[in-house]
Records
---
Amino acid sequence: MNDRLIDGWPLPEARQILEDAGFNTQVYNAKEDLLRDIRPSLLMLWGGVAFVLLIGCVNIANLMLARSQVRRTELAMRLALGAQRGRVARQVLTENVLIGVLGGVLGAGVGVLGLALLNALGLSDLPRGSQVGLDAGVLLFTLGVALGAGVLFGLIPVVHLVRNDLSSVFRTEGRTGTASRRAVTLRSGLVTAQVALAFVMLIGAGLMFVSFRSAVAVDPGFRPEGVFTAMVSLPESRYADAESRRQFTDELLSQLRVIPGVEAASMTSQLPFSGNNSSSVILPEGYVTQPGESLLSPFQTWVGDEYFETLGIELVEGRTFHLSDGPDAANAIVIDEWLARRYWPDTSPVGKRMVWGAVPGSDDVDEEDLFTVVGVVETVKQNDLTAPDEEHVGAYYFTYRQRPVGFMTVVARTGVEAASVTPRVRQVLAGIDPELPLFGTRTMEERIDESLASLRVPLILLSVFAGIALFLAMVGIYGALAYTITQRTREFGIRLAMGSGPGSIFAMVLRQGARVIGVGLLVGGTGAYASVRLMQSLLFGVESTDPAVMGGVAVLLAAVGMLAAVIPARRATRVDPIRALAG
């Protein structure tokens, strides 16, 4: 098919030009094409869900392990009195499955609220985001995970119940009242794993936050504050010729400019961050492409007079369009800095002519295809604040008065709340043509904000996951140390009775917590260095191994972990030696 199209192009060098331009046809699976841009974000969020689930499971495992240690005497006593192991095991499993199901139901309720919040924050701006919801499949998956977790972690006390020798349980309890060294080591290892996983999650959230902040700080090339935008489409049945479209636009702009609060108004065929893009090849007059050089296809836009002033696009050289640039005047064009540097790196482009509308490489160029460059303006970000500068291919602007268009976006800079002028703009439009609707009303800031949805939604979700991970890590550290203190009450009583001060006990417990946190940070740092490198394609303005982010997250997690350790450490200092020794 491509060969037939190329052979039908009225230019002898057509094949060479297209080959130099890298022309080719790529075929994609529809599903792959839909997910291609958001696949990294989805994988990252899946990873976040998996990490939170894993941290929660580790926390439950630790709690179940502690619970099995607390209940081991009770269970051993029941077995010694004749209870069957299978019946006791079923009871323990039933209790844990019930807890798991209740947790799943509660999680589904939280999911409903969370989905409503995400919709309010721009989930629908993502591909097929409006179709995301809680259906039967999601609820069944949630129930399955809850049941699986209940059964899995209910097996922990069951295993202890089956494997333990009853006489050893009574001897250990009677002699020391403390858990075995193996159990203590296992619980410390689980808490260390929680800290490590939370560290990875927090680093991911920190990197996304810095990336989002860097994107927001990018200069779009214009001033979006206080700019109102709305779209108007002229039907060909009533605006069939250029003069009728020109008269309509002239009248619309003249009336918009007298609305109270409007400082400047204009129109454009292609507004930045609107998703409405148009591009076409344009070349300087007499330009000869070099072998292997690709033809550029910059963004092309039709604008009204005062457009650059209204949007706040800086004039670099020459002038912008005037009302005198009408149908009887010489064809005028304004180009951006990028295009000026591309074709005139060492000289001014003002006054030079460009060829547009003719077949590239053709020697037969009509006068109507030649446009004189009257000005150069600042380069503008068209759709994505995070797009690399090297991906920009230039932009050029025509005046609507020479080539009127039927579809336009009205732009107005206001000294009041931009959205508040919408009713007055509708009145003006209705006064000119009552049958024309005004649609797509947005402020320019809203349009830019919508373009950041692909960064903002993952950031919010990852931050929520990281917050949950941090909370679970705190709970894990607190629970492990609190249980340790319960088990070591007699030891602390003896130490206090032998002359140790509360300060030394406090420091001892804190050191235990610090060891767990330190090892967790070390393991988590190693894991984070390997895993967050996969996020690089999602980041902007920050490296995946940014030392400031890693250091800040480490300090935060260490501070929060030590805060969780302070409470049980203070409790350890209040142990009554007499009661501890008597018990």
---
Amino acid sequence: MATARKDKPNSEVQHWLNIIRAYEKEYAPWEKRVDKILERYRDEKRNRQDVDNPSTRFNILWANVQTLVPATFARLPQPDVSRRFSDRDPVGRVAALILERALDFEIQHYRDYRSTMRQCVTDRFLGGRGTSWARYEPHIKAGAAQQPIDGDQVTEDVDEPQEQLDYECAPVDYVHWKDFGHTVARTWEEVTAVWRKVYMTRDACVARFGKKLGDRIPLDATPDDLKRSDTENPEMKDHQRACVYEIWNKEDEEAIWLSKSMKEVLDKKDDPLELEDFFPCPRPLYATMTNESLIPVPDFSLYQDQAYELDLASDRIDGLLKALQVRGVYDASLGVEIARLFTDAGNTDLRPIKNWQAFAEKNGLKGAIDIVDLAPIAAALKEAYEAMEQIKNQVYEITGISDIIRGQTEASETATAQQIKGQYASLRLRSMQQEVAVFATELLKLKAQIVSGFDAQTLAQISAVDQLAEADKPLVPQALQLLANKPLRSFRVEIAADSLVQIDEQEEKQSRVEFLTAIGAFMKGAVEVGGAAPQFAPLLMELLKFGVSGFKVGKTIEGTIDQAIEELKQAAKQPKPPDPKMQAEQMKAQAEVQKAQMGVKVEQQKAQIDERRMKMEEQHDMRQMQIDGAMQQQDAAMQQQGMQMKGQQMQMQHQQKMQQAMMPKPPPRKQ
């Protein structure tokens, strides 16, 4: 059983040694190429050349790297932490603000992020790969010794001081391109394990692995840069280190520490940092890549032929410049006075000539001196300079460096032409800047996940939560609790490419003025609308929040806007105390309305009375007409009856007269 336990670690170590050996064999040609590129960048070959006849070189590699590094990374990035969904979530907003302030403190207070980014960007433009590593670093201090209760000492032993957490940080380490490795794969997504070499002193080994194991680790390794110095400085041989491999296996989600010299596992932990993507390092910052391999192609490899031609042209120009001097012969019979004309003669200097007549017969000074013709040399030098400029332009076409990047413009160009050149150059560099921004963002995401796991008190201190807006302070406990639970699932950590490049202060001031101008114009219109229609006040505040949240500076006042919106909503639900002036105006308006209503009622009643009167008059007229008609009919009937009676009477009288006429007359009386 003891043998089985001993063989198991050895077999595991052998498994990882085989994987490391496969990587070293695959990347050996690339490492040799990068060594040559660095040698050329540092111009080390010149020191080993013939001192008496050194060749002239044009270090275009140094010039390009010194141009591209500040063009892609000129200052510290500005982290931007926001909610994944821009909905209304006060707790999430405060949590994002705390995390952003904590990240800003980390990258501003500690210098590791700045130096790591600079070194990674430099490696990207030299060897083609820049790598970094994030880790958690707690600092412990000794606490006060535990005091006995009520002053009673139980034993004579003195209590040892307890360890307490002093502070925490999340540093990011630069990993040399020779000290980084991963499983051989075609793309980064296929990589299952990453590792780095850590060179540790004896004290560091004891502090990390304990005294018993730390004293056993042999100090038999030295970084390659120190190995190169051993031959030049024998004292460097004493700087031996222990080379420890820190391997993170994504398939088993465990971290392993081992040493090639001991052939055993030094330590093993299951998912030490609990990162979302497990790896403590972001995807390396690569140069030119293909889909068949993760071996990068350095930029210098793409224009090394032109660089060689530049060296050749520079050496030819140096030779022509040395040949471009006055050389010739003179007639020795005339003495040394002719030669002294070019050596120690001053302005308007005249030399005496003996036997002037013979000197004049030999065509004077022209016949006495023969100077080497410098015209062919000058023409060749001019052609060499033109050829050199053409080669440089070819390099600039390959690398994407334009004249406008180096600040070289022509005075005859218009402002529009220069602006177009600047935009074109910016477009050609945009992809490089974006790659650096993505690398910086991924590194900040790792740092953000580690920072979120800090103690709540530490996180509150480094983010200065006591300086937040009064509307945000009550939400701090809930925000800290939210950060402790997988923060990147709820937030975005982003870095704009422009934040890595030096920005003109005038442009930043102009953006702030534009922000204040836009908000001022909106507030002016909102006050007018809100005064005329108070029910629209919450909607106007929501629109204000929508506009302010688009600016980075608006995050600090977003909580105040939320508080104002809540106050407006609560005020809308509760009745406001009546304003005496407003109440008097309302009473006056109500009185006028009531008066108007009474007038309308009176008019309505008057109209009803008039209508009734008209109806009564109409009924009376109808009745009168009926009475008059009846009386007329009665009068007509009476007249008709009278006429009938009169006719009957006249008929009776006529009959009587007829009867009388027909009756015999009586005899006359006798007198």
